[in-house]
Amino acid sequence: MGLPAKKEYARLLRLAVAGIGNRMNFNFDYLEDLKIGLEEAYLLALRDPKQDRFNVTFEIYSDRLEVLVTGLGTIETLEEEQSQRFGFSILSSVMDKVEWIKNNGTRNLRMVKNI
């Protein structure tokens, strides 16, 4: 799923992940965690003035949902900077696994929520 990196698209992203999580039978609290986690990732993208698209891939498994956010900034220290920010601590608290993946000079964010 690709969206413009503009704040008015955050609601659409929340609706999409809520629909996916609902179909996977996540309970209410886990659905809220998914929405919060994805919104925080979206806010990370909005902090980068060069970011014009927000690209997210949902990988559905029987026991978990994996979310891959691609192309989050080109700054080499983005991982360290974001790890120290409040938003990243929120991500870590609502998702079961959060990791940065370096790919061709950009950072991708992989988040996992178990059922």
Low-confidence stretches: none
CATH architecture: 2-Layer Sandwich
Overall tally of domains: 1
Strand content: 25-35%
Write the layout of secondary structure elements.
Layout: E1 2-4, H1 10-23, H2 28-47, E2 53-60, E3 64-70, H3 78-83, H4 86-94, E4 97-103, E5 106-114
Antiparallel strand pairs: 1-2, 2-3, 3-5, 4-5
Q: Explain this structure to me?
A:
The structure is a single chain. This protein is of the alpha+beta class and 115 residues long. It has a single domain (2-114), classed as Heat Shock Protein 90, CATH 3.30.565. Helices cover 43% and strands 30% of the residues. The protein contains four helices and five strands. The protein has helices spanning 10-23, 28-47, 78-83, 86-94, and strands at residues 2-4, 53-60, 64-70, 97-103, 106-114. The longest helix is centred in the first third of the chain and has 20 residues, at 28-47. It is globular and about 35 Å long.
